[in-house]
Amino acid sequence: MLSGSRTAARSLLTLLLLTVPFMLCTLGLGLLVSTLSRTQQQAMMLTSFVFMLPQVYLSGFIFPIQNMPALFQWITYAVPLRYYVVILAASSSRGRLEVLCRRRRRCSPRRRHPRPRPPPLPPPARLTAPASEVAETALVGARPYTGGSGTSSRRR
C-alpha cells in the first residue's frame, strides 16, 4: 500500500516538473503577443485566433495527429500543447488512476461476451418465369398513356 502512494507521488512530481517547460513556452508566446499588439483588444484577438485555436486543433487533443495531412503533421512539432497533451495522457494513465484501480478493483474493464452472429441470409428467390413473361403479365389491365395530366379532357 505504501508503494502505491509512492507511485502517485512520483507521477504527481513528474507532472509538475514537466508542466514547468510548457508554462514557460506559453509565457513566451504571451510575451510575443504583448510585443506585437498595441491594444488589449488586439492582443486578445491575436492570442485567440493566431495562437490558441491552432494549438488546440493541432495538438492532437481534438483530432488525432495521425489522421491529419502530412503538412499539418509536420507543423504540429512546433506546437507546445502537442507535447503537454502526451504528458497529461501518460500521467493520468500510469499515475494515480492505477493506484485507485488496485485498491478497489472497480476500474478493471468489463469482459464482454461476444454477440452471436446472425444466421446468413438465404439466397434470393429465382423467378420461375422468364423476364419477358413477367413483363407481359405486369402490363395486363394497364391503361394506355394519353399524355395528359391525369384529369379528363372533357369540360363540365
Summarize the structure.
This protein is mainly α. The protein contains six helices and no strands.
Written overview of the protein:
With 156 residues, the protein is mostly helical. The protein has a domain at 2-104. The chain is 60% helix and 0% strand. Helix 1 (2-36) packs across helix 2 and helix 1 packs antiparallel against helix 4. The longest helix is centred in the first third of the chain and has 35 residues, at 2-36. The protein is elongated, with a radius of gyration of 34 Å.
User: In percent terms, what proportion of residues is strand?
Assistant: under 5%
Succession of helices and strands: HHHHHH
Biggest beta sheet summary = none
Number of strands: 0
Which term fits the overall shape?
elongated
* Cα-based radius of gyration, to the nearest Å: 34 Å
Put simply, the count of helices is 6
User: What kind of assembly state do the chains in view correspond to?
Assistant: single chain
Distance between the termini: 98 Å
Mean pLDDT: 76
Helix/strand/pairing category: mainly alpha
List unreliable stretches of 5+ residues. Answer: 96-108
Question: Portion of residues in helices?
Answer: 55-70%
Question: Which terms would index this structure?
Answer:
156 residues; mainly alpha; elongated
